[in-house]
Design goal:
Elements (H helix, E strand, L loop, with lengths): L1 H16 L8 H6 L2 E2 L2 E2 L2 H4 L21 H4 L4 E3 L12 H13 L4 E7 L6 H21 L7 E7 L10 H7 L1 E7 L1
Parallel strand pairs: 4-5
Antiparallel strand pairs: 1-2, 3-6, 4-6
Helix pairs in contact: 5-6
């Protein structure tokens, strides 16, 4: 009789243990919903609500509120004849670094450019120094070196074809190109 009692007790525990007390958990279900093939991590990371974070933009893992807007800026401009990153790009580069550091499968190509002034060889070198400066800034913020490649186009691919200060300013740049 005690054997029958133990079997009945075990069956009861298994049946009752399989029942949920409160039904489904909407928060857990919402954390794993997908939109367009991308997982919504916002409720898991505490960054925003639903599929949209602060400002209505998608928030990726490892990113902070406001980063989605910052990473839309993918061109870093430079002053004349220098590879020094201007201070106004520090937050933009920090947002890109957080994105890359949180997504090790993601990579970028940094394309360095120069304006038409100077020799072709000098401008190739200047574009390379600019791309390397951005690379170094990203790596100092935790991005793995294997995620970054650099190339210099010098003056060969101008963003603007004019020959005035406005056009030259647009051509002194590094473009951040993402690939996965």
């Amino acid at each position: 009789m005690s054997r029958t009692f133990l079997i009945a007790l075990a069956a009861s525990v298994l049946i009752l243990g399989g029942c949920s007390k409160g039904g489904t958990k909407p928060d857990a279900d919402a954390a794993s919903t997908t939109t367009g093939g991308e997982t919504d991590y916002s409720s898991q990371t505490g960054l925003g609500t639903g599929a949209a974070g602060e400002g209505g933009a998608y928030v990726e893992p490892g990113m902070q509120p406001g980063d989605a807007e910052l990473i839309t800026e993918t061109v870093i401009y430079f002053d004349f004849d220098t590879a020094n990153i201007r201070p106004d790009y520090s937050e933009v580069l920090a947002a890109h670094a957080r994105r890359l550091a949180a997504n090790p499968g993601m990579s970028v190509r940094l394309e360095g450019h120069a304006d038409e002034r100077g020799s072709r060889e000098y401008n190739i070198g200047l574009g390379e120094r600019r791309a390397q400066a951005v690379r170094q800034a990203l790596m100092l913020q935790g991005v793995n070196s294997v995620q970054i490649t650099t190339v210099s186009y010098g003056e060969e691919r101008p963003a603007s074809t004019g020959s005035d200060e406005e056009a030259w300013a647009l051509n002194r740049r590094v473009e951040i190109i993402y690939s996965e």
